[in-house]
Amino acid sequence: MSVFTKVERSELVAFLDAYTVGDLQHFQGIRAGIENTNYFVNTSGGRWVLTLFETLHVSELPFCLYLMDHLDTHGIPSPAPVADRNGQILLVLKGKPAALVQRLPGRSALEPNANQCAAMGEMLARLHLAGQSYPRQRSNSRGPQWWQRMAEVLLPHLDPAGQRLLTEELNHQARLRDLDLPRGVIHGDLFRDNVLFQGDRISGVIDFYYACNDVLLFDLAIAVNDWCTMEDGALDPPRVAAAVGAYARERAFSAVEREIWSTLLRAAALRFWLSRLHDLHFPRPGELTHIKNPDVFRRILARQIADPAHLPPAAA
Questions:
Q1: Is position 109 within any domain?
Q2: Which terminal CB of the chain, N or C, has fewer other CB atoms within 10 Å?
Q3: Domain boundary at 50, 72, 102, which?
Q4: Are 77 and 104 in contact (CB under 8 A)?
Q5: pLDDT digits 0-9 by tens, 272-282
Q6: How far is CA 106 from the centre of its chain?
Q7: What residue spans of 282-310 are helical by DSSP H?
Q8: Could you give the CA distance from residue 206 to residue 108 in angstroms, rounded to a whole number?
Q9: pTM of the full structure
């Protein structure tokens, strides 16, 4: 979430006139994140988040927006989209698709403790279970085919060791394509800044714009890589055990999931290493932009190769 498209107050007032949310009081650009333009918007009728979609095609957005509403009705605290006076949840602002959603309470736990990691694991499993009844479909736009395309573009920008690491990992990940793993709706980007807490209780799950249908355990691997790793890229066993154990109490792992856990952690690290490398070497202009360090995921990938992880026992 960054500000690539600047919205003037008069433009926002005109946009909000389509809704019944009251009069504009204050708005502010959100710097965190890297994909869309986001603003906090306060009106006399409540607090909202306005998103202008910079890269997603308009045909992809109903999957994300209606998923948020679906999950909210199934007990996952998600920011339900707001319909305008005509019942529409997707409008246009500054020539970009735009949506207004509820702003949920709480703050992100940027240094999560074991209890918060457990809450995340439990919530993610419940999200996956609730997603089984969601009828819409969307393929993962950041899956293996995208990895290959990005690698071709980014290899010239890497040092020789990085080139070897990337090439060898792509070869290793090819085995995933032939495995029968449980699939369904995944969040796809469940980083610490996309979960809100009040104490150790989750009060909100946000930013569903990478949500898609894919391998469920890949979603947990994405989260564990961000929530449960240390500065050197190694996993922190207590936090991993808390997150994975809480997840497993809601949705038990299959035998093949147990066998492939380390490879999925590597896949998750590869996906975000590539996306951060692309943002670093091919940045998009914006008023407020936030480019994250790709070396974080290079270290995580290297550590997983050197010291493969295993899922803890089912009773953990």
A1: no
A2: C
A3: 102
A4: yes
A5: 999 999 999 99
A6: 18
A7: 295-306
A8: 10
A9: 0.93
Q: Per residue in 207-266, pLDDT tens?
A: 999 999 999 999 999 999 999 999 999 999 999 999 999 999 999 999 999 999 999 999
Q: Tell whether 119 and 220 lie within a shared domain.
A: yes
Out of 102, 129, 146, pick the residue that ends a domain: 102
Whether 120 and 213 share a structural domain: yes
Beta strands 24-29 and 37-43 are antiparallel
Domain span holding position 64: 9-102
Helix count and strand count (H, E) for the chain: 9, 9
DSSP state of 3: B
**Minimal CA–CA distance to 246: which of 267, 225, 220?**
220
Phi, psi (rounded to 5 degrees) for 32: -60, 140
Q: How many CB atoms lie within 10 A of CB 139?
A: 10
CATH number at residue 80: 3.30.200.20
What type of residue is 194? N
* Token digits of residue 137: 């479909």
136 domain-assigned:
yes
Helix (H) or strand (E) holding 118: helix 114-131
